[in-house]
Amino acid sequence: xxxxxxxxxxxPDSLTPADRIDFLRSYAFVGMxxxxxxxxxxxxxxxxxxxxxxxxxxxxxxxxxxxxxxxAHRSFRTSRPFQFALxxxxxxxxxxxxxxxxxxxxxxxxxxxxxxxxxxxxxxxxWWAHAGWIMSRRYDGYDTSLVRDLRRFPxxxxxDRLHMLAPLSVGVVLFGVxxxxxxxxxxxxxxxxxxxxxxxxxxTVLLYxxxxxxxxxxxxxxxxxxxxxxxxxxxxxxxxxxxxxGWHNNHHRYPSSERQGFYWWEVDVTHYVLKGLEKVGLxxxxxxxxxxxxxxxxxxxS
Length: 302
What we know:
The structure is a single chain. By secondary structure, the protein is mainly alpha-helical. It is 51% helix and 3% strand. Helix 3 crosses helix 4, helix 4 (80-91) packs parallel to helix 9 (154-161) and helix 10 (165-184) packs antiparallel against helix 11. The longest helix is centred in the first third of the chain and has 27 residues, at 46-72.
């Protein structure tokens, strides 16, 4: 049985002018949705659908393993070159630069589900937690004091300023591959516009809303194993969609653990991939949940 968070009335007065959704400022976010509709005119092919799946899952890993588990929580270690590769991969998802992302995420953990949280669904509603907060002016910048450990790397500071280069590079590659398909394999029925539309625009829109489910759904619906002070919940279907990020109550109780699915039945694809990368020496020192994490805790509020 799924436990649900108590509904709370959203007071319109709690939203300041800085909190209002600014569609002009959100041109990239809104524009990506509009561009995704272009696939209604380009048609689709097998190659374009493969591009969609590859760019979705690989870039999602850049968010889950890179931006979240590595940069935000330092739950494993890696080399400086692979650190930058993870940062570039995360930035290619179109969710701003690594310093911006990590600063806001660390702020969320510090004040989860309180008035100082950046996206508390219980106080400001589902839509605010899901996407409204990134469309407001309030969070254009970020608190540099929360990412001092990352700002010492000049390449990360540069990528944070020029983060749009990462998704643009994905688009250039897709367009080029589509052009080659048109010229060399016309029988496939694949065009450059299909590859760009499905592999970048549709893929990015899906990435937006799948990862945003962690901010909205997993603070409202699911099960609570641990009695944390916030409203975090474990939600199995969000975990499946997000490569393991849906085990959110586990994560809020032990945020430094690289593994977020603590039991074999808690599917955590990000963890499995990182274990594979550990075997080939690209990452190491994966932090694990403490032994007490497996002792059943009583009294977790619903």
